[in-house]
Design a protein that fits this description.
91 residues, alpha/beta, two-stranded parallel ribbon, 16% strand, globular
Length: 91
């Protein structure tokens, strides 16, 4: 399992995984855009309500990918709505 986060310390302290986990933390600051192709190479995704994680999942070429996204994308009901794809799981 690979974990991408802008707050990896929080993730390590608050989320416990039963699988071997690699925290991707080397692309920081002005190099953080380099995480996007790494994210897109993954097979499955649990994404936050962020455009960065959305693009990582959307750019994946894996045809059998599973994407889990937030049911409520934002508090603003007058905005663009939930940009997740129909085949994505919304929790």
């Amino acid at each position: 399992m690979y974990v991408f986060s802008d707050d990896p310390d929080w993730v390590r302290e608050n989320l416990k995984f039963d699988a071997p986990t690699t925290y991707v933390v080397h692309n920081v600051g002005r190099r953080n855009y380099q995480d996007l192709p790494l994210m897109a190479a993954c097979r499955h995704f649990i994404i936050a309500n962020s455009t960065f994680s959305w693009w990582g999942a959307w750019l994946s070429r894996h045809t059998e990918k599973i994407v889990v996204a937030p049911r409520a994308w934002s508090k603003d009901t007058n905005g663009i709505g939930n940009p997740t794809l129909e085949e994505w799981v919304r929790l």
